Structure formats: structure tokens, C-alpha cells
Automatic annotation (TrEMBL):
PANTHER family from the UniProt entry: MICROTUBULE-ASSOCIATED PROTEIN RP/EB FAMILY MEMBER
Pfam family, one: CH
Organism: Heterorhabditis bacteriophora
Keyword presence, Nucleotide-binding: no
GO molecular function, one term: microtubule binding
InterPro entries tied to this protein: CH_dom, CH_dom_sf, MAPRE
Keywords, alphabetical: Cytoplasm, Cytoskeleton
Keyword Flavoprotein: no
Compartment(s): Cytoplasm, Cytoskeleton
Protein name (database record): Calponin-homology (CH) domain-containing protein
Domain Calponin-homology (CH): 14-116
Cellular component per GO, a single term: cytoskeleton
Length: 250
């Protein structure tokens, strides 16, 4: 019999995103690295299968697809299974499939509590075999899918013979420089405010100051760096990751 759980601001467990991801990866033998990757619904399908073996058919689940329609289909499979099992948690599919951190983080916190209330402690489940050896969709798949620009799109750096011609340093992209400067100012404000209030130990403040110095140096290098579509993506990706880690640490 299913045990339904309800989470409020008072009863909600204070579990970090790193602990939740570690739990998911350990339970499913997966390699997810972001909470947002739970938005595909595939992991919830398998976690439900672990709890209720006959309650959901994993053969219809799309494990490693970037297609939003496949993700929506996974959530429909999950919703149908939950209704048959008797799980009364409403699924806000439209919000979850958008891949926003907060929506997926709150839902995963609820599911973690639901899982603990319904797990019988059995250890005879092979998650990798249960999904037919399929891998989960992860952010690294996006990076690998970025292809280099064709020769025709390389611009004035290549002459007619195909050899590289000397290209003068390109001017910095204003939006990128502004984002770097904004990150620097935000980080400086966080470090200063934290030190003044006494809520962060000296070691953490020193580490943040070091990060700010490295980011300033990176900003100066931007002016002489020629961006491609791949380098821009990686720049924004790691800048976002760094900012999220800063918020969680401070």
C-alpha cells in the first residue's frame, strides 16, 4: 500500500542539492550532475519502478533524449502510473519540463521524502539492467553535441589557399565584459557583507577573494579573446555554475 507524504515549509527536510544528486546517482547508478536534469522525468520513472515493480512500464521511457516532447511523454507515463498506484501528488509537467532549478529542486525534495516512506529496504534491484543499459540525459551531452564551425564560417582568418592569415585582435564583446564585471561586483559585495556580519569564517572570505581576483584576470583576458559559439557556451555555463556554488557556500 502506498504511503502519501506532504511537505510544507515546516516539515520539509533541509537537504542540499549535492546530497540529493548523490542519492539519485547512487540509487540509479547514474551520472547526473545538475538538478535540472531531473526535468526529463526518466529518473522519477525508474525510482517509481524501484518502489513498485509492477506499477510502471520502463520500456516506453525515453532515457537519453533532448526532445522536450519525449520529456513530456515520460511525465505522462509517470502520471498514469502514479494514478494507478494511488499516489496523489499532482505533477506540474509544464513547469518541471522547463528545467528551472527551483521547481525541480522542490519536487526532488518531496520525492526523496516520499521514497523514504515507501522503500522496503530491499537491495535486489539492478537499476542499470532495469533500463536496458541506457544512459541518462546529462549536460555533458550538450557540450559534446556542439560542432566546430565549418571552414566557410571562419571569417577573415583564412585566405583562399586555406592557410591561416594573421588576424588583428578582436574587440571585446560588450555583453560578455559587462557580465564579468557584474559577477565581480556581486561577489565583492557578498564577501564584504559576509565578513562585516560575521556569518562567514575568515577562510571562506579569503577563498572568495581569491575567486574574485581570478575572475578579474579572466575579464582582462576577454578583451583579446576571439569568441566562437562553443567558447561562449562554455563561458556562460561555467560562470553560472560558479555563481550557483557561491550562493550555496555563503
Amino acid at each position: 500500500m502506498v504511503v502519501n507524504v506532504y511537505v510544507s515549509a515546516v516539515t520539509q527536510d533541509n537537504i542540499s542539492r549535492h546530497d540529493l544528486l548523490a542519492w539519485v546517482n547512487c540509487t540509479l547508478q547514474s551520472n547526473l550532475c545538475k538538478i535540472e536534469e531531473m526535468s526529463t522525468g526518466a529518473a522519477y520513472c525508474q525510482l517509481t519502478h524501484l518502489l513498485f515493480r509492477d506499477g510502471i512500464n520502463l520500456k516506453k521511457v525515453k532515457w537519453n533524449s533532448r526532445n522536450e516532447m519525449d520529456h513530456i511523454n515520460n511525465w505522462k507515463i509517470l502520471g498514469t502510473a502514479w494514478k494507478a498506484i494511488g499516489i496523489d501528488k499532482p505533477l506540474q509537467v509544464e513547469r518541471l519540463t522547463k528545467g528551472k532549478f527551483q521547481d525541480n529542486f522542490e519536487f526532488l525534495q518531496w520525492f526523496y521524502k516520499f521514497f523514504k516512506a515507501n522503500f522496503d529496504g530491499s537491495d535486489d534491484y539492478d537499476p542499470f539492467a532495469a533500463r536496458g543499459g541506457e544512459k541518462y540525459y546529462v549536460v555533458s551531452n550538450i557540450i559534446q553535441s556542439i560542432k566546430p564551425l565549418p571552414a566557410s564560417a571562419k571569417g577573415p582568418g583564412t585566405n583562399r589557399n586555406g592557410s591561416n592569415a594573421r588576424v588583428p585582435p578582436s574587440r571585446p564583446i560588450p555583453s560578455v565584459v559587462k557580465k564579468c564585471q557584474h559577477l565581480i561586483s556581486c561577489c565583492a559585495a557578498v564577501s564584504t557583507g559576509s565578513a562585516a556580519s560575521g556569518t562567514v569564517v575568515t577562510k571562506v572570505v579569503e577563498e572568495k577573494d581569491a575567486e574574485i581576483s581570478r575572475l578579474r584576470a579572466a575579464t582582462q583576458e576577454v578583451s583579446s579573446f576571439k569568441f566562437t559559439s562553443k567558447s561562449l557556451f562554455l563561458f556562460y555555463f561555467y560562470a553560472y555554475e560558479w555563481q550557483m556554488n557561491l550562493r550555496l557556500t555563503v
